[in-house]
Amino acid sequence: MIFTRQTQAINSMKPELERYSRQVLFSELGEAGQTRLMQGRVLLCGCGALGTVLAETLVRAGVGQLKIVDRDFVELSNLQRQVLFDETDVAARLPKAIAAAEKLKKINSEVRIEAIVEDIDHTNILALAKDVDLILDGTDNFEVRYLINDVSLELGIPWIYCGCIGSTGQTMTILPGKSACLRCLIDSAPEPGSTETCDTAGILGPTVNVIASFEAINAIKILAGREDLIKPVLTVVDVWEGTLRQMSVADLREKAGCKACHQGERIWLKGEQGSRTTRLCGRNAVQVSPAEKGRISFEDLAKKLQHSGTVDYNAYLLRLNLKNPDFEISLFRDGRAIIKGTDDPAVAKTIYARYIGS
User: Fold this and answer.
1) For residue 147, which of 270, 283, 300, 51 has the smallest C-alpha distance?
2) Does 349 score more than 90 pLDDT?
3) pTM
């Protein structure tokens, strides 16, 4: 009898929903929720471990539009946990946003996917977020998270915070004006060296998959018009220990006295907080950004650098392997570079200035 009802329900579905029939059969979502989901517009900030799981889950679920922004390129060490990439992406030195978009379009050609190879900062985040319904955290650093928090409050767009290290992950959904924001929970970024990183604690693939799934299900709730089902909690999961905790943050917005929520403070969005250098987790590398973004000619620069080391480039980045000292520079068209071989920002900036310019 149940089988017959399910078959009848599937047969009576609108043609555009047939692809998502098993999802539509879930009563809490239904045809109405799926239809709204298919109109949803999402900004995904970062497409590494968390981001690839989120992107694939939402594209398979039928989100309408997905804008993927990531600053990095695919490396061999990513493949342990970044589920959209493979060895051909490593060999091609593809930016993560580009490689992810190519895979996702093969999974679901009905979703509008935009790949943007950029570093998210205070100069571009408003433009990136202005036409979306939801912002998702797929990053690995607090600087971008505080930027997302500021733009969320400024534009009234929900966002979902998520992070993981070792076997532990945590996530919290922020509904501007209704729930606690990230600064209510953590007023300022942790001091360097005060917390574990994937360099010191490592990271397990299952940690990423589990906590990203919690983030994805709340994303689906919001996009499907079921924001009322979002619990005001910080969810913490330890996959190694097999534990899950949910801590209420229902009254945190009122108790925290958060300047961002109550006084409209936007120090990250205004560029009053932030840095031109960023250590990249687990990479022995530092990202250096120019004071002014430009458009670099790889052809011209390759000629200038040909005596400095081994140079090669594609449409997205130029790579210089130095003969002495032993550093690798991966340069993007906008002038941003990843300096591999050091985790010292001062050293990275010196290398950048020497070979690329100040």
Assistant:
1) 270
2) no
3) 0.86
